[in-house]
Amino acid sequence: MIPQTPPPRIDFNTRKALMFALTAERLSAYYEHGKWMTDAQGATLAGMWLSRSKRQVALSERRLLSELSDQFARQLAEQLSREAGLYASHEMMEALDPNYQSAFAHDMLDECERLLRENGVTE
Fold first, then answer.
1. Fewer Cβ within 10 Å of end Cβ, the chain: N or C?
2. Percentage of the chain surpassing pLDDT 90?
3. What is the 3 state secondary structure string of the chain?
4. Domain for residue 5, yes or no?
5. Range of the domain at 33
6. pLDDT digits (tens, 9 = 90+) for 58-111
């Protein structure tokens, strides 16, 4: 039997992109359904996304990314009017497509990076 190699770990840029995507999904779900996704749902969603690209990260780190994305999404929703929040959610969801360019999404990605670094998530 050939030994299987474990899936590759993720780097900082992938963590940042994952936090951005989770934040976008949380905002979208909130504005569409009026409910916040739980941290467990976020961690599960992150795990599903990573498995598609044959990558992995420890459950504890998926939970941390889920918690941080929840804090960020709620902060955005509190600071923005409903109309601005809907715009933010739409722009972030569109930006999940790598061909879509958005200055707003780039700013949100930078904010994800700042929040990750502040919380000890590094390379």
1. N
2. 66
3. CCCCCCCCECCHHHHHHHHHHHHHHHHHHHHHHCCCCCHHHHHHHHHHHHHHCCCECCHHHHHHHHHHHHHHHHHHHHHCCHHHHHHHHHHHHHCCCCCCCCHHHHHHHHHHHHHHHHCCCCC
4. no
5. 12-118
6. 888 889 999 999 999 999 999 999 999 999 999 999 999 989 999 999 999 999
